[in-house]
Amino acid sequence: MSIADVKKTAEHKMHKTLEALRLDLAKIRTGRAHVGLLDHVQVDYYGSMVPVNTVANITLLDQRTLGVQPWEKAMVGKVEKAIRDSDLGLNPAALGELIRVPMPALTEERRRDLIKVVKHECENARVAIRNLRRDANSTLKDLVKNKECSEDDERRAQDDIQKLTDKNIAEVDKQFAQKESELMAI
């Protein structure tokens, strides 16, 4: 493994960590509806648990309401129950074949709780990025020990990895600030 490989691997893994954070933050709901909100809700489909979006069409009816239309009439009750039983705190209402899922308004206390959750997710991402930096630096030390690169090259590579780490942690902080302002907006 060369220094370039170590840098490239670290950069790739840090990018994946940022993507995972972006997806996790998208699941934390604000007062607005978005179709990705129900992605992790599982429904019983003839004995196997599948995501809601595989058995129903999810649309945005307005800013604060989702429309869920199961492809089979028999699934309406099951989908409605799955959404109600999820940890999202939603109260769906079936109107014939369409299930309306209104987004309740967020209270100030609930907003603060959500910000704590966001802060925790961001801190986990920072820790993951720092762990990737540590792993890359230990790999560089192994390269020096095995005489595959010089100490000067290792030092330069460590500086590059530190810059990459700082850049990614700044991106985490930016995502946190963005989500925090989104949650506090009324």
TrEMBL record:
Its main location: cytoplasm. Keywords: Coiled coil, Cytoplasm, Protein biosynthesis. Residues 115-167 form a coiled coil. Signal peptide: none annotated. It comes from the Bacteria. The keyword Coiled coil applies. Responsible for the release of ribosomes from messenger RNA at the termination of protein biosynthesis. May increase the efficiency of translation by recycling ribosomes from one round of translation to another. This is Ribosome-recycling factor. It comes from Propionivibrio dicarboxylicus. The gene is frr.
